[in-house]
Each structure stands twice: as structure tokens, then as C-alpha cells.
Amino acid sequence: MDGNGRWAKKRFLPRYIGHQKGRNAVRKVVAHCAKRGVKALTLFAFSTENWRRPQDEVSKLMDLFLQALQKEVGKLHENNVRLRVIGDRAGFSETIQSHILQAEQLTQANTGLALNIAANYGGRWDVLEAIKAWQVAHPNQTPADLTEADLAPYLCLAELPEPDLLIRTGGEQRISNFLIWQMAYAEFYFTDTLWPDFNEASLDEAINSFARRERRFGQTSEQIS
Ligand code: IPE
Ligand code: MG
Fold this sequence. Notes:
The chain is an alpha/beta fold. The protein has helices at about 5-10, 15-35, 55-80, 95-105, 125-135, 150, 200-210, 220-225, and strands at about 40-45, 80-85, 115-120, 165-170, 185-190.
């Protein structure tokens, strides 16, 4: 979800206003995904690298995260959304951690949209954690025995199908340490739209673009048809 800062700057507003506006875009996109029958949505809210931002911005982002957990979760629950947070949550305050846990417990049996918030998440972190967890679970095996299929269950989002579509807003064309393992065969969609301006129509456009792609997964066009 990129472009909050630039959205604010264009309007001579402080960056955090852009983040606040970004939260409205999240609401719209989550509701629209649920409406369109999207099974899973993962939002990259805060990367392991985002701690390097100015202290004031980081603390504003934490305030927003906490507010969102306090104010939005009830509504998500009513709408049958299952919320999960992926990332190293030990980096967050006790208060935020306990709200994350409550939100996950409250919504865990919901069968609608699987909404994942990537917070203090990094794709490389995810892969390393998976390897460590695999080793703990298999003390008598060595990494020489490890296959992709062995490791997959230890990665974040293992219980969901791999992502079909990556949308990156704000004109940037890079993956920025997002779901690097899980995105191996995802279709990428880039838009100059700044995240606070991203809305239902923007999502429809991305989905339409996705629908026109031919996914070959390494095979030839003839094999697929
Ligand atoms: C994305 O918007 C929000 C977070 C990373 C939390 P940015 O803050 O990166 O916005 P720009 O890139 O400065 O416009
Ligand atoms: Mg940015």
C-alpha cells in the first residue's frame, strides 16, 4: 500500500494524514474484496524496514494500527472476515500484541474473506523463520533432506492458496521483501494511483487486468489450453 506520504505532500499536509486516508482505502478495498468473492487479501502495512523511518512517523503508524484494531475488528467480524496478522509481532507494544491476539481469536472461525495484515513482516524473515521451525520440528534431519514441499507448511499463509495477484500502488515497481516465496507465480500489477486514492474501481481494474493474463506456470500456451 504505497503512496500515502506523497498523497499528503501533494496537498501540503503532514505524512500521517496520508496514512489516515490510507486507512479509508483499506476499508473500501476490504469491503469490495468481500463483495467480489475474493478468498484472501494480504495487505502489506508495515515492513521490517519501516522501523527506519523517523521516530515520529513510526509512532503515528503504531497509533493508527492500534486504533484500527480497536475500531475496525467488530465490523470485520460482523462481515464474517477472518483476520490474521503475519510478521514478527514481538516488535510491537504489549497493547498492540494483545489486540492482535483478541482480533484473531474473535474472528478465527469466520468463513468469509481471509484478511491478512503483514506487519513487521519481511519475506526473508519469513523464509528464515520457516527453516528454523522446520529444523526444530525435525531434529534428526539435516537441511540436506529439506524439500520445497517440506518447508512450505512453515511459511506464513501456508494454509491459503498461493497469491494470484500482487497489486502495487504508488508507481513503484518492486516487491520490497513482501511475500517473496509465496509470490513465485503471482501476476504483478503496478499502478501509479497513490494508495489513499485506490478504490473499488481501481481494484476492479486490477482484477480485469489479471483476468486477461495467461498463466502458464512454466508450461507452453498449447499445454494450458
Ligand atoms: C505506504 O505509504 C505506507 C507505509 C509504508 C506504512 P508511504 O508512506 O510509503 O508513502 P510514500 O511512498 O512516501 O508516498
Ligand atoms: Mg513508499
